[in-house]
Specification:
This protein has helices at 9-17, 69-72, 92-97, 114-123, 144-151, 213-228, 237-253, 256-261, 269-275, 279-293, 323-348, 414-424, and strands at 45-51, 77-78, 87-88, 101-107, 161-164, 169-170, 172-173, 189-190, 297-301, 355-361, 364-365, 377-378, 382-388, 395-397, 399-400, 407-409, 432-434, 440-442. The longest helix has 26 residues, at 323-348. Helix 10 (279-293) packs parallel to helix 11 (323-348). It starts with 8 loop residues before the first helix and ends in a 12-residue tail after the last strand. Strand 2 and strand 3 (87-88) form a beta hairpin. The model is unreliable at 1-32 (pLDDT under 50). The chain is globular and about 55 Å long. With 454 residues, it is an alpha/beta fold. The strands form six sheets. Strands 8-5-9-1-10-13-4-14 form an eight-stranded mixed β-sheet, sandwiched between helices. A two-stranded antiparallel sheet has the order 2-3. The chain has a single domain, classed as Alkaline Phosphatase, subunit A, CATH 3.40.720.10.
C-alpha cells in the first residue's frame, strides 16, 4: 500500500492505527475508498430538506378525516393528482404534484426531545440517550452528507457536502451536522448567509484582484514544493483534515461552475419569485443550482428555531401561540409554494432523473390536539416525502393507524431510511467505519426499504 507521503514503517503503522479520519476501518487513509463500499449509484445528488421542529402528518399528507375533531383538526382533505390519496386543503400546489412523490407514512422511533431526535434524523444512528441536553461532539456519528462525501466523492472542484442557511439548535447545537470522527475534511461547506437578502454572495469564493485560477495554481505548486523539502513529517488526522480542506477551498476558488451556482442574481426574477422570496424559498433555489453544479449532498434546514410564529414545525402551543394560525399563515404557505416548485423545476431541467429530494423532520406531531391548541412531539409515527431518482413515483409506503398514532403496516426507522439513501448513492450501508474508541460501526445499522425503490 503506497502512502500519499513517505513515512517510515513504524510511523506508517502508528498513523494507520489512528482514528478520526474516514475509511473502511481505522486503517484507511484519506482518498482510499474500498471497492466493496461502492455500488453502481442510482442517485447523483441528494437534496435533503430537513424540517426542523417536526411536521404534523395529520395536517399535511396523512389526514384522518373520519377521526374525532380533537384528532382530525380544522383542515379538510382535498383530492390530489394521485387518485385516492388526498392532501390537506391548505396545500393545493403540493396536491397537484403529489404523484411525483414516494410517501413513507410509517417512520417511527422513541426519541421525544429535539436534539436527540434531530441527531437521529441527521445521521440515521440512534443517540446514546433521549436527552435534550445531548451535546454536539466529534465522538458522535457523522452526518449523512459527510458519509456521502467520503464514500461517494463528487467531481473535482465541487463540494461534496453543502449545508445552509442555518445551524439548528434547541438550547445547544444539535449534533449530527458535521463529519464528526470521520474527519474535518468531510465537514460541510456551511453557508450561514440568507440567500433571500439582496446581494447574496460568498466572498470566500472570490479570488483577490489580479489573481486568476492559473496564478493561484502556480502559487499552490510553489507551496507544495517547499513543504516537500521539509522531510517526512508525521501528519496527524487533524492536520490532514485541514490540509484537505485547504485543497478543497483552492479547487472551489478555481471553479467558475461553483462560483456561478452561488450567484442567485443570474436567475431570472420570475424564477426567484416562483420559489418565493423567503429564506427557505431561495435556499431551495440555491439547492437546485448546486445540484446542477454536481454537488453530492445538499442539506437545507427549514429554520434555525424549532418553532414559533416564524420558526420551525414545533407547533405544540408554547409561548401562547396556537398551532393553526401558524400553519395557515406561515408553515403551509411556504411549503406549498417552495416544495412543488423545486420538484417541477428539477423535472423541467431533466435533473429529477439524477437527483433525489428528501423532505423529513425529526419526528411528527401527536394525534390528539392538546389543551393549548397544539400538537405535541410524536416520534411513534411520522412521514417522509421522497421524489426523484431511484424511488417510485405516486407510491405510498406504509400506513398509519386510524388515529395516525402508530404504524399499521410496514414500519420503518431512521436507520432504514439512511440505509436506503446510502444504497441509492451506491454506498454499501454495511461498510464499517471506526469510532474514536476504535469500535467498528456500520454506516447504517438499518435495512434498505425495498418497497420504495423504483
Amino acid at each position: 500500500m503506497r502512502m500519499p507521503w513517505p513515512m517510515p514503517d513504524d510511523l506508517t503503522r502508528r498513523v494507520a492505527l489512528r482514528v478520526g479520519f474516514g475509511g473502511l476501518g481505522a486503517a484507511l487513509l484519506p482518498g482510499m475508498v474500498p471497492a466493496s463500499a461502492i455500488r453502481p449509484p442510482k442517485v447523483k445528488t441528494v437534496i435533503f430538506l430537513h424540517q426542523w421542529g417536526g411536521p404534523s402528518h395529520h395536517d399535511t399528507i396523512d389526514m384522518k378525516p373520519d377521526a374525532p375533531m380533537a384528532i382530525r383538526g380544522e383542515y379538510k382533505p382535498v383530492a390530489s393528482s394521485l387518485p385516492g390519496v388526498p392532501v390537506c386543503e391548505r396545500l393545493p400546489q403540493l396536491a397537484k404534484v403529489i404523484d411525483r412523490f414516494c410517501q413513507i407514512r410509517s417512520l417511527n422511533h422513541t426519541m421525544k426531545n429535539h436534539n436527540s431526535a434531530g441527531y437521529y434524523s441527521l445521521t440515521g444512528m440512534a443517540p446514546p440517550s433521549d436527552d435534550q441536553r445531548l451535546r454536539d461532539s466529534r465522538d458522535l456519528f457523522p452526518a449523512y452528507g459527510a458519509i456521502a462525501d467520503r464514500f461517494a466523492p463528487p467531481p473535482a472542484g465541487v463540494p461534496g457536502f453543502v449545508s445552509f442557511p442555518h445551524q439548528i439548535a434547541d438550547g445547544s447545537i444539535t449534533p449530527g451536522q458535521h463529519a464528526s470522527f470521520l474527519g474535518k475534511a468531510h465537514d460541510p461547506l456551511f453557508v450561514g448567509l440568507d440567500p433571500a437578502q439582496p446581494g447574496f454572495k460568498l466572498p470566500e469564493l472570490s479570488l483577490p484582484e489580479g489573481v486568476d485560477p492559473a496564478r493561484l495554481a502556480r502559487r499552490e505548486e510553489a507551496r507544495a514544493l517547499v513543504e516537500a523539502q521539509l522531510g517526512p513529517l508525521e501528519k496527524a488526522p487533524l492536520a490532514r483534515g485541514i490540509a484537505e480542506q485547504h485543497g478543497k477551498a483552492l479547487a472551489l476558488l478555481g471553479s467558475a461552475k461553483v462560483r456561478n451556482a452561488f450567484d442567485l442574481s443570474k436567475e431570472p426574477d420570475h424564477v426567484r419569485d416562483r420559489y418565493g422570496r423567503t429564506t427557505y424559498g431561495q435556499s431551495c433555489l440555491l439547492a437546485r443550482r448546486l445540484a446542477e453544479a454536481g454537488c453530492r449532498w445538499i442539506q437545507v434546514y427549514f429554520n434555525r428555531s424549532i418553532g414559533g410564529a416564524r420558526g420551525g414545525w414545533d407547533t405544540h402551543g408554547f409561548r401562547g401561540e396556537a398551532m393553526y394560525p401558524i400553519l395557515k399563515d406561515y408553515l403551509l404557505p411556504i411549503t406549498d409554494q417552495t416544495l412543488p416548485t423545486l420538484i417541477l423545476d428539477l423535472e423541467e431541467r431533466g435533473l429529477l432523473q439524477t437527483t433525489l429530494v428528501v423532505w423529513v423532520g425529526e419526528f411528527g406531531r401527536s394525534p390528539r390536539i392538546n389543551n393549548i391548541a397544539g400538537r405535541d412531539h410524536w416520534p411513534q409515527c411520522y412521514p417522509a416525502l421522497l421524489a426523484g431518482a431511484g424511488v417510485k413515483r405516486g407510491h405510498v409506503h406504509g400506513r398509519s393507524d386510524k388515529m395516525g398514532a402508530y404504524p399499521a403496516s410496514d414500519p420503518c426507522r431512521p436507520e432504514d431510511l439512511s440505509a436506503t439513501l446510502f444504497h441509492l448513492l451506491g454506498i454499501d450501508p454495511a461498510t464499517e467505519i471506526r469510532d474514536p474508541l476504535s469500535r467498528p460501526l456500520p454506516l447504517s445499522p438499518g435495512k434498505v426499504i425495498e418497497g420504495v425503490l423504483a
